[in-house]
Every structure is written in C-alpha cells, then in structure tokens.
C-alpha cells in the first residue's frame, strides 16, 4: 500500500469517526443537551466573572489620575493664611498644582449640588472650612509621605488622600483576578472529569464492538479516534452553551446597568465576550473535551482486549 493510499485511508477514517460520533450524540438529544449544559455552566461561571472584572477595570481606568490631597483648614485659619500656604506648596518641586477653594465658594457649590438651599441659607455662619486641593507631580511615588507631612501642618485640620480608595479598589480587583483564576482552574478540572466519565461510559457501552475491532486487527489509535471526536463535540457544544449563557446574562443585566450609569451622567455600557471571546470559549471547550477523552481512553481502553 502506497503512502498516499495510507493517508487517504487515515483521512477517510477521521471523517467517518467525526460524523459517526456526532450522529451518536444527536441520537441521544436529552443526555447530550444535559452534558452540554453542565459543561457550559462550568465554563460560563469563570468567563462571566472575568467579563465582570473587565468591565470594572474599564471603569477604574477612567478614574486613574495622580492622587489628589484635600487639605481642610482649621476654622481659625483665614482665607489669607490659606492663600499663603497655597503659595508655599506651589514652590515645592513634588507638587504640580494647588487649588484654593474658599469657604464661600465651597458653600455655593454645596448649595447648588445638594438641593438644600433653604436650609443652608438659614444657617447663621458658614460651617465649611477653607480647602486646598493638592495634586502631586504625575508619577511621583511619595504621595503617602507628602500626605503625612501636610497632615502635620498646624494650619491643617484634616488631610484626605482622595485616591486611597482607588488603590484599595485596584487591590480588590487583583484579588478578584486571582480568585477567578483559582475558580476557573477548579471548574476546568471538573469539566475534564465530567467529560472523562462521559467517555468512559461510552467506552463501556461499546465494549463488544471494541473487542471485535481489535480481533480483526484494529489498532488502539483506530479504536481511540471515535471517542476523541466524541469528547471534542461535547467540549465544543459545552463552550457554545457557555458563550450563550454569558451573552444571555449580559443582555439581562444590560438595561439596568445602562439606566444606573445614565443616572450618574455616564455613557458606560456592559462589555461582553465579543466574537473572539466567544470563539475562544468554544475552542477551550473543544480542547478540554479532547483532553478528557484522551485521559479516559488511555485509562480504560487498554483493559479491553480480546480473549
């Protein structure tokens, strides 16, 4: 037999194995759909969490800016003294900008934004202090040291690091990313085990057929091939269901999130997996299906031999 004939026979058996395994799956629609759903849910959970983190990261990226310090002056510090401190801070090389907001300006802004104009007008005196907004030089990494130094100034009642919350948010997002990776690893292992058990049951149901094929000289590779394609189809179907579940969840949450963003005068919209993300999920499912099938066939096929 020539090399070309061997190649044509090998290719023909691949085609036959792929079509036959897919036909067997469709012949048992209920069990196949249940298997696809189980795999899809296992893959959709980490994918949905990753999409959520990506959306949160998109929001936080728009907030990234040099950390700003808010210096609230003591009540006894006048506007002139506050302006003197502003000029002292502007002379420092580690400070890019200092904005002085007087207590009268702060009261007018608070009145306009809060909607309590009548209540605020009834106050005998302005309760708000003079304020300095200090912006460190972009890229400076001594913000905490600067915060401690300015907070110790006798003219300052309180110094607030306005971006400290964003640093905590970034730390939480890093923790979330690690949790997603850990959960994803566990669920991926679960998918491999589910597929391995499914293929093991398929092997047991076709034990007599396997024995006959080996009796007539069929190699382990020849016998293994249909089961590998079965695992591939289960994995691809599970990845498709996972992408569908994530898309459905995002569609369900899209309108409420858009309404919430609009209430904050934001144009933010939930981002999804996209075509490439969905395709990657399907490919990942197929690879996991092949892996689970390979492990199951390698483990159980050797124990089936003609007597």
TrEMBL record:
Annotated FtsX extracellular domain ranges read: 68-157
Q: Which InterPro entries match?
A: ABC3_permease_C, FtsX, FtsX_ECD, FtsX_proteobact-type
Which keywords annotate this record?
Answer: Cell cycle, Cell division, Cell inner membrane, Cell membrane, Membrane, Transmembrane, Transmembrane helix
Q: How does it sit in the membrane?
A: Multi-pass membrane protein
Alphabetical list of Gene3D superfamilies matching this protein: 3.30.70.3040
GO CC term (a single one): plasma membrane
Indicate where this protein resides in the cell. Answer: Cell inner membrane
Transmembrane region(s): 25-49, 179-199, 232-253, 273-297
Q: Which BP terms in the Gene Ontology apply to this protein?
A: cell division
Tell whether Transmembrane helix is among the UniProt keywords. yes
- Give the domain of life: Bacteria
Q: Where is the ABC3 transporter permease C-terminal domain?
A: 183-299
Membrane as UniProt keyword: yes
Family affiliation: Belongs to the ABC-4 integral membrane protein family. FtsX subfamily.
Its function, per the record, reads: Part of the ABC transporter FtsEX involved in cellular division.
Subunit description: Forms a membrane-associated complex with FtsE.
Q: What is this protein called?
A: Cell division protein FtsX
Provenance organism: Kineobactrum sediminis
